[in-house]
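Form P-L/3: holo structure prediction, ligand pyridoxal-5'-phosphate.
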Amino acid sequence: MTRYQYLATLLAQRIEQGLWKSGEKLPSVRQLSAEHGVSISTVQQAYQVLENLQLITPQARSGYFVAPCKAQPPVPAMSRPVQRPVDVTQWDEIMTLLESRKDKTVLALGSGSPDLSQTTLKPLWRELSRQVQHNPDTVLGYDDLAGKAELRQQITRLMVDSGTLVSADDIVITSGCQGALSAALLAVCKPGDIVAVESPSFYGTMQMLRGFGIKTIEIPTDSCLGISIEALELALEQWPIKGIILVPNCNNPLGFIMPDDRKRAVVSLAQRHDIVIFEDDIYGELANDYPRPRTVKSFDIDGRVLLCSSFSKTLAPGLRVGWIAPGRYLDRVLHAKYATAGTNVPATQLAVAAFIRDGHYTRHVRRMRRVYQQNMEAWTCWVRQDFPDGICVTRPAGGYMLWIELPEQVDMVCVSRCLAKLKIQVAPGSMFSASGKYRNCLRINCAQPLTETNREALRQIGNVVYEALEDANTLTPPKAPV
Amino acid sequence: MTRYQYLATLLAQRIEQGLWKSGEKLPSVRQLSAEHGVSISTVQQAYQVLENLQLITPQARSGYFVAPCKAQPPVPAMSRPVQRPVDVTQWDEIMTLLESRKDKTVLALGSGSPDLSQTTLKPLWRELSRQVQHNPDTVLGYDDLAGKAELRQQITRLMVDSGTLVSADDIVITSGCQGALSAALLAVCKPGDIVAVESPSFYGTMQMLRGFGIKTIEIPTDSCLGISIEALELALEQWPIKGIILVPNCNNPLGFIMPDDRKRAVVSLAQRHDIVIFEDDIYGELANDYPRPRTVKSFDIDGRVLLCSSFSKTLAPGLRVGWIAPGRYLDRVLHAKYATAGTNVPATQLAVAAFIRDGHYTRHVRRMRRVYQQNMEAWTCWVRQDFPDGICVTRPAGGYMLWIELPEQVDMVCVSRCLAKLKIQVAPGSMFSASGKYRNCLRINCAQPLTETNREALRQIGNVVYEALEDANTLTPPKAPV
Ligand SMILES: Cc1ncc(COP(=O)(O)O)c(C=O)c1O
Ligand SMILES: Cc1ncc(COP(=O)(O)O)c(C=O)c1O
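OUTPUT (holo model):
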């Protein structure tokens, strides 16, 4: 990030946080230059960016003013999914999303990719290339079944921050978080079993349940506090549920961090009903606040939490380096991994281990936390400008996803088809439900830099949404929102 | 390989093939030097290697003679497994084998690794490092669901040699052959289904069946001709078998290549009984003879053969690049891959694609075919020298594995435990049976160069086998061999 970009995102964040109100005059170029120790032209460039983003408006001879902006929209209410075990559907929509990845001219706002353009990531691919050259035997040979010991060692060090104390022998390296969840489910469940999930929840995991013939029950989930413990308890009393999948930290798609007392409550509920918790902590390190939140596993006393994660969001998904700390299921997870996936690529593991060891990981993640937080605030502001009234937007506590709930009449599956023609890809909400709920919602990836292309794309999304809403309203009278 | 090593393996092969008989005088150093256009000292070094390997003996002032060698042992007879569906066991033995990989001082004769020391492999890791440096965005980002198009394109070109005509869109890249088989089984089978396998057969695949809760029925298999079509037919009439897993080319562990008429017969049998064929062609490119054998899939007319393979044996297992041509099951395989494994590492795919495109693949595989064939012949000769009478040894038509059947009293599980103390790892035969048959057999990996360390290791294996045989004979009177 250049100096002026940095300043622009900082100012965007202040506007978003309401430090400067709509219509208020902004500090002069000279003032800001002195305050931030940057040149006049840097400030001018930053203001130009904000003007292009329509966050501020210039007024002849009197400087810049905060552009008019609607009030902060409310957060989505507790979700109300169908609460009985179902087979997961929605594969076609996901295929459409995955297929659109192939066309590199499509703006992938529906994807889960992190920002790969930051300079703090450079030592990673330098290390990767170094490993290949200096370590060809290890790089070309079969990996150990549990994965490279040096990487497992580094992961245990990282996990301390989340209150999770495990040894390197308690960890198994997997091919991404998907590989971790896959080994976990296969080790614990069999076809026909029922597994509970948050609702909405990550479509990849739900397709995995479908792949293994496991039934899914969606549990009401609050966009700030996470899964409803009460609803979960009711479901556990009513159905023979085998386990529950939770993304408790920087949830995908809702962005919440479950408060510690709820994490504790869910563990004791699991104990009482003797079920297993599959914890997916993939975004946990990207919490806005430091130190990062605790894992559910850090409250686990009898090894019933299988903690799954990966470096796909913190570093890069192309590494395919994930891991699992399977608690009491270690042996079964090792078998499941061997049986279904075999071993992993050694090269990327060694590169990540060196990247962590040499302090690059901490530096990179520290930067990304700030970048993503600023991005999400700017995107939220754009959404307020470009979207119709009556929407709800999440206020993520980390990660880089925004979840937007539109008036019930809007069908995002149709909207996203229109957007595909404009080479803009978004993730319609129905992908995040086992049974296709949340058709009026969408998830937007805010990881990408605050460029004018992105600004313009969001404006186009807003336009198509407006049109869809108008069409719907002429066809059917508006109903109360969900 | 240096010049003298090359000459040594060539001479070893001639001795093994019986061109020079036991006790016969070998050509003089001068003669060989002229014949091969190499220096006197190169020939002397080569003879020194052969002497160290005890293939030849020097006689003062009269030159070198072929060392006394026992007659060629017979090949193993048709196997006679238990012919009913069972749950696969033997995981403990496999874990022991996999665990011993961690100790780099152990000589891994039980592993499946190819020779990674050849110079023809160098362009591969140069390419890998180049991709990382010049293509960081692609390397770090999420892969396409089906894998990199350029690699799929190159694979279709390679497959032409095996009579298999598919397009790049018919191919899905997987994490090794294990990933391919896993997606194939998950796409077609559900727990409780029965799948037939050759007997003996690769333990990794059988553990996969166990992992998915699929029952296994082992079918009698001939060490030269492959699976018994008659026995398979009988089994199909008796049990509701869903599919059959075949390694028809350079079989692991038996080394046979199924003749074309049998390949055709198995396809029409599959049609008649409407079952699926999971074809594992991982060693198919390493057939001794050129051109390489046809795939079973090349006889398939209605898309019921799912062809699985990888570059783990031809190039390097640490790449984790495999693929599947799933015929009519393409959509289900894509879902199974997405659901259980996610996407793959782009870097190694791009490196392999470039390696093939630039002609390095053909060069490397051509060399490896010759190297492995020479190795296996030298190892066979050592086995004849060091092992007791009454053994059977396969005569592999490709790959790099030898399968040795010992007198029935020898328990290779115990022998391999003794060998582990000597830091020598072999694969006991029982790993290759669903129900622990073939305890009197072992598989030896002959991929590694003909070094004195390997020569000495085989001598030690022979010693422990002799001891085990003696112990067994003093305890129980010898029975007729299997
Ligand atoms: C919540 C969640 N879990 C798992 C995954 C899969 O991660 P990976 O790419 O490491 O397999 C994702 C990726 O989008 C995710 O958002
Ligand atoms: C017959 C057979 N199939 C599959 C595999 C697994 O291959 P990969 O390492 O590509 O997953 C092996 C490896 O030993 C094998 O011998």
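COMMENT: Chain B has a mean pLDDT of 93.
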